Amino acid sequence: MSHDSALLMVRERGWSSGLRNMLRKENGTWWRTKKCWVQILVWLLIANGIPAFILWIIPLIDTGSPLPSGADGLEAFLSILGPAATIGVLILAQSIIVREKQLGTAAWILSNPVSRAAFVLSKLIAHAAGILAIIFVLQGLVAYGQFSLRDGELWPILPLAAAIGLQALHMLFWLAFSLMLGTFFRSRGPVLGIAFGAYFVQEILGQLEGLVPVVPAYMPTKLLALCMPAALGRPLPTVLPIVSVAVSAVLFVLIAIWRFGRQEY
Questions:
Q1: Within 10 Å of residue 118's Cβ, how many Cβ atoms?
Q2: Which of 7, 21, 185, 203 is the most buried (most CB within 10 A)?
Q3: Judging by beta carbons within 10 Å of its beta carbon (0-12, 13-18, 19+), is residue 142 exposed, middle or buried?
Q4: pLDDT digits over 61-101, tens only?
Q5: pLDDT at residue 129 in the model
Q6: Model confidence, pTM
Q7: In the chain, what is the straight-line distance between the N-terminal and C-terminal CA atoms, in Å?
């Protein structure tokens, strides 16, 4: 496609050499193809479909039941968005690096004045921005409109924004993790298998907090448990998951840059 090959002369040097050029290319895969509209429609259905059903369809079907409130839609929205976004990110991210290796485009791009750090960071930034805009910001705005319309008044937007921010940090953890895995393997199977395995293992460990009280408190799944209190404007019971997830995501990115910088093409 034209946006994949439209690499322009750039003047960056060092670790950022070619970063703007690569960002232009990677952003094109999100915003200059039909992928954008497909993702928007899919996530509107996933994230806002069930809340819309609860808030608008059920009252039409069961006219004798009490009208649901925006809080009912909020609970459904947050409980769906976290796990669904994680699975979606793992699927979207499985081939970010691997595909470039398989097609040989990584070797071709790196033969240009593009640093390996810029190559990795451009993938992370462009995909994080696309996912954040479509899955979190857009869906959050639609959900906010639904809740406000159902209750007949504007909802406080900052608590909901805080909850969505926690969901976005959770997404960034798994995106960085998948990106790191892609620098170690040359096929999608191990990347997707290990990522999904890690996701389900931490979900299981999260259920064993009474037996292993220390480790689960730092895991990404505990970050999602903070979303509902944040959305309701309540004090968070802990900030440990926020710190551990943020530090882990940065560590994954650094490992990805280190590993990718030592591969031969």
A1: 25
A2: 21
A3: middle
A4: 988 888 999 999 999 999 999 999 999 999 999 999 999 98
A5: 97
A6: 0.91
A7: 23
Helix (H, G, I), strand (E, B) or coil at 62: coil
Show the tokens assigned to 102.
């398989």
Distance CA 121, CA 257 (A): 8
Query: Regarding predicted confidence, which is higher, 173 or 109?
Result: 173
Residue 11 pLDDT: 56
Tokens in use for 79? 């409980």
Phi-psi region of 33 (alpha: psi -120 to 50; beta: other; left: phi over 0): beta
Task: Name residues whose C-beta falls within 8 Å of residue 263's C-beta, 6 or more positions apart in sequence.
Answer: 183
- Structure tokens given for 258: 């280190």
Within a domain: residue 265? no
Domain count for the chain, please give it.
1
Pick 209 or 129 by higher pLDDT. 129
Expressed as residue numbers, the domain containing 117 is 25-33+81-139+154-260
CA 198 to each of CA 72, 87, 168, 191, 241: distance values in angstroms, whole numbers, following the listed order = 31, 12, 18, 11, 16
- SS in 3 state form for 223-246? HHHCHHHHHCCCCCCCCHHHHHHH
Q: 114 Cβ partners below 8 Å, 6+ apart?
A: 17, 18, 21, 22
